[in-house]
Amino acid sequence: PWDGSPAALEGGLVEVHTRTGASTGIFKPRGHLKHPTDLALAHNNIYITDTGSHRIRKVAGFNPADVGTSLGASSLALSTLVGSAGPGDSDGTAAAAKLRSPKGIVFDTKSDRLIVADDGNHKLRAVAWDSGEVTTIDVVSIDGAAGATLGELFGLAFNEDEGTKGTLYISVVDQHRILKLDLDSGAATTD
Predict the structure, then answer these.
(1) pLDDT tens, 65-82?
(2) Which of 55, 67, 128, 178 has its CA 20 to 30 A from that of 106?
(3) Is the Cβ–Cβ distance between 86 and 50 less than 8 Å?
(4) Neighbours of 102 (CB within 10 A)
(5) Nearest-angstrom CA–CA distance, 179 and 182
């Protein structure tokens, strides 16, 4: 069984590492990636922020236990989960929603959804696991200031042990800070 080891994406290849950093196998998904930036593992799928094509990609049926054995001789198919040709800024079904340079991605275990750092739009997006519906996560305040903007987003981390709905940590590159977003209230802080 898989022990939850982290994975890293580099040059269109996915390499899964053990906690000690030892490589356990490499595979290349069939399909084209244009500047893959981050990935998340959930429900035996790999989700990839394909920043250059403004999409969220999916490698379905990924079984981490098979890395280094069955994956060595085969490739898994790459499909588009969210987005279509060109950048944009809209919620909706996975096929109709538009993103602009998505970067960070994390799986929210409390709400069974993906959370995406939609960098070019300075927004956080949620992708519902069951329906594929894409919605914007409202940030009602930052350090008590209502209407503050998120800025250039990059990395995300989710902590299910904080708050009823969990807490999201957000790397905001141009503001040189890490925000802590309470998903219950929508309030973000830098403390």
Answers:
(1) 666 544 444 557 788 999
(2) 67
(3) no
(4) 28
(5) 10
Q: Are strands 177-182 and 167-172 parallel, antiparallel or unpaired?
A: antiparallel
Any bridge partners for residue 128, and if so which? 113
At 65, phi and psi to the nearest 5?
-65, -20
53-89 residues labelled b (16+ CB within 10 A) or e (exposed):
bbbbbbbeebebebbeeebeeeebebeebbbeeebee
Euclidean distance between CA atoms 92 and 64, whole angstroms: 31
Q: Does 29 have pLDDT greater than 80?
A: no
Q: What is the pLDDT of residues 159-187, one digit of tens each?
A: 999 989 999 999 999 999 999 999 999 99
Residue in the block written with tokens 């069951």: 130
Smallest CA-to-CA distance from 88 within 55, 132, 127, 137 is with: 55
Residue 37 structure tokens: 């930036």
Give SS3 for 51. helix
